[in-house]
Amino acid sequence: MDINRLQTFLKVAQYGSFQKVSEQEYVSQRAVSKQMTQLESELNVTLFHRGKNQISLTAQGHLFLSSAQDIVNNYLSALTELRQTDSQEKPLLRVGYFSAFEQQLLLKALYTLKLNVPDLQLIVRQGSNEHLTQSVTNGALDLALSISYGKPALPDDSPITALPIYHNQMVMGVSRLNPLSRLTALPQTNLTDRQMLYYSPENSTFLLESFLASAPFIENYEDIHRVSSAEQMHMLVALDQAFAFYPKGLTPPDADKNVAYLPIENDTTQEYTIETLYAPHTQNKVLKQLIGCLTGK
User: Fold this and answer.
1) CB-based contact 68:6 (threshold 8 Å)
2) HTH lysR-type domain location, by residue (predicted)?
3) pLDDT of residue 238
4) Average pLDDT in the 115-121 region?
């Protein structure tokens, strides 16, 4: 699939006009239209409603929009990584994490490692637990952080290793505007009529299933919703629009001004473990050093 066609598609979707895109890209309107016709032919779907003065996306076009953006973003990220990586024989690590919370564990370990290996080159990616696990399995990443919460981070037959590096309890974030924030623990009965959020940068069946497995008080999976940024989740919680799951011990201290973090009353199923995933029997000396930094050994 031609990346230039996808980039043009995204611009046409944004501006709703072949002419505006042609003026921005200094090409003819006919060339832009031809690119979109070729893309539609390749996909065998109609992406646009073509009016006299307006171009709009069809239902298939709207469906394809996010996928096209992901493809372009991944391509540009890979291109940036290639250009940033020195071609000389310097040590290289490719690592990943799944959220803004546990990334501080990875940051601390990488910072320590860089002090000891100044010429270390790094490729750092954020993604869903599923993508990270697959990337470590197929060798696209050397190491990634994942979570064991409600269900194991890896299936029993996984060819890679999961090593625990941090253990704590999942708590519920409640706005200090809400009288419930003054309690020492949040009663389960108060969780059945309020929207509950969890944070994941990508759609993650793994995380949704983990939260549902650890929260028997959730009677309907539609009561729990994913948000794609930690900042958005925290704003909604702080303004008392929702409750949200937070990993105790990995929440920034300055967030406490607006949000109280409460354990769920009479619930012993909220323990979680951050685990580092990597291929067993690795001979990568720098990777072994990073694992040592993460485990404190």
Assistant:
1) yes
2) 1-58
3) 94
4) 92
Token representation of residue 140: 């696209």
Structural domains for the chain: 3-84 (1.10.10.10), 92-165+274-295 (3.40.190.10), 166-272 (3.40.190.10)
Question: What CA–CA distance (Å, rounded) separates 290 from 71?
Answer: 30
Length of the chain: 297
Report which of 204, 248, 252, 194 is spatially closest to residue 226, judged by C-alpha positions: 204
User: What would the pLDDT profile of 187-207 be if each residue is shown by its tens digit?
Assistant: 988 887 788 898 888 777 888
Confidence of residue 286 (pLDDT cuts 50, 70, 90): very high
Average pLDDT taken over every residue of the chain? 87
Asked if residue 275 lies in contact with residue 162, where contact means CB atoms within 8 angstroms, the answer is yes
| Burial group, residue 257, by CB count within 10 angstroms (0-12, 13-18, 19+) | exposed
